[in-house]
């Protein structure tokens, strides 16, 4: 019998086929050695996880649960840590504080703080009327700025935010009618002018000022926005001293102003999401909406 190499030497095609078969077998063997089967890989992963976690699930405590992790959180995130302490504090306070009796007036810390100013205004009706008139002027300033923004500068965001805010305020005011404080000092110079009835929750005076100031900041009118913030703070003190609002009315008024200004911004961002104006936070892009 001739040696195996002799037929291959006589037949070049057979030699090529034999070389291909040998190369395929060698490549398959190498791949089998380098790349283990999927089941084998999964078994190795589970074994590693079990060894690392010391259990079947491989779960272990997060790193921030250690003393060093907590210290790092306190150093890098002091504000959330402060809020966490506040949560624990007020949980203890809420579960132990005595409730106000059903036949007793509401306990308002803002009223307690402004008691001296309340007594002074109550003893001087002219001062009460003067403060009410000044407050009404400030409300007119808020409305005037918002109308100027939409009618002259064609920026409707502040106006839409105010419409949303006052509609929500009316719904909440009808849903929960709070009693008027016994020490309320009304005035014919106040807004609504004529000392008529009004909703207590939440304060539209405060929310409107917040919306106007936010619009001013977007337009770079920082000094004017700071003036409105200062006047809004004085308005808060006056409303507490005259018992025109509870403290919670004023606090939620600030939040409502921020909330509805943000929602109005989302609304116009969605309306102007046509390419170049998408995700634009400036009110300048809202001019196109009014021109349609």
UniProtKB/TrEMBL annotation:
UniProt keywords (A-Z) are: Membrane, Transmembrane, Transmembrane helix
Compositional bias of kind Low complexity:
7-18
Q: Looking at the Swiss-Prot or TrEMBL record, what is one Pfam family this protein matches?
A: AtPDCT1_2
Q: Give positions of region: Disordered.
A: 1-55
Give the signal peptide, or none.
none
The transmembrane residues are 79-97, 130-151, 158-178, 198-216
Which residues does the UniProt record annotate as the domain AtPDCT1/2 transmembrane?
Answer: 107-265
Domain of life the protein comes from: Eukaryota
Q: What is this protein called?
A: AtPDCT1/2 transmembrane domain-containing protein
Organism of provenance: Urochloa decumbens
